[in-house]
Structures are given as structure tokens and as C-alpha cells.
Design brief:
Layout: H1 3-12, H2 16-36, H3 43-57, H4 64-78, H5 84-93, H6 103-113, H7 118-133, H8 140-150
Helix pairs in contact: 2-3, 2-7, 3-7, 7-8
Length: 151
Amino acid sequence: MSCFNILCEVLERLDDDTYNALMEEKSSRIIPALSEITADGLSGVQIYVDFVICAVAADGKLTEAEYQLIKPILDLSMEADVGYGDAQKFFYDNGLDKPEGYKNSMDSIADLLGLVSQELKDDIVLLCMLVCAVDGEMSDEEREWIKQLIE
């Protein structure tokens, strides 16, 4: 078994406290670093959101656990209390169930990963892996998507 697959399995089995601590640690390092490299300093948050949304969309599904993870982002961006049904509608209406629906975001992400330090890239990849593992399983599609980020 590869180191990548072992890491995936470890992340799939994280307890809630460890998962939340890792998400908080990585997010608190990634957002300021992304804000530093953007012209306005604010779009770093939007880039972070793009990473999270693309990680959720990697397998073309929005699970209940993924919804709970991105609910604060959805509520803020849609200025409403977004329920799971509305989130699924948003997900499918915006083509996030198909790779071409988020291709432009992925192209930008790939470009950005080539510009940042290896440490920041590692943090971003781990964050994306955590997002993919939030429901306790990383699908083959999610694993392939993560491998593309690593390359």
C-alpha cells in the first residue's frame, strides 16, 4: 500500500476533535498566506473557498458531512440560512457534479500551487484531503483529484 493510500485511510478515521483541530490549524495558516500573495489581500479568502468547494466537488457529490463543513461558507455567500436541499440544488445548478463545472477554478488552483512555497502547497493539499475525508471515506475520484494537486 502506498504512503498516499495510508494517509487517506488515516484521515478517513480521524476523530472529530483531531479533525477539527487539523482543519483549524491548516486554515489559520493557509488563509493569511493566500491573502499575502494577492493584490487586495481579501481574495485570499476567496481562493481558500475555491479550494474547499473544489475538494467537495471532486467526486461529483455533496454529502451531508460535506454540506455541514461548507454550510458557513454557503450561508455567508448566499446571505441566507442554506438548508441541505438548497445546497444540493446550488451544487448541481452550478455544475459542481461534473468536472467541467469547476474547471476554471481548478485551472487557477493548479497555477497557484506552482507559485507558492512547498510548505504552503503541502498545507493546501492536506486541507483538501481533510475536506474529501470529512464523510469518513475518500472516493477513488477524490483520491485521483488529490493526486492531480500533488503533481
